[in-house]
Amino acid sequence: MKFIAKTLEGLEEILAEELSEMGAQDIEIWKRAVAYTGDKMTLYKSNLLLRTCLKVLVFMKEFSVENEIDLYNEIKKIPWEDYLSLEDTFAIDSVVNSEKFRHANFIALKAKDAIADRFREKYNQRPNVDTQDPTLKINVHIRENIVTLSLDSSGHSLHMRGYRKHSVDAPLNEVLAAGLVLMSGWDKSSPMVDPMCGSGTILCEAARIAGKIPPQSPDRTFAFKKWKSYDPVLWEMVCDEAESKINTNDIPSLLGYDLNQKAVQVAITNIGEAGLSEFIEVEKEDFFYLEGSQNIMLIFNPPYDGRLKEKDVLDFYSFIGDKLKLSFQGCTAWILSGHMAAMKNIGLRPSAKKSLLNGSIPSLFCRYDMYAGSKKQKWQDMYPQETAKENEKKN
Question: Could you tell me the pTM of the whole model?
Answer without folding.
Answer: 0.89
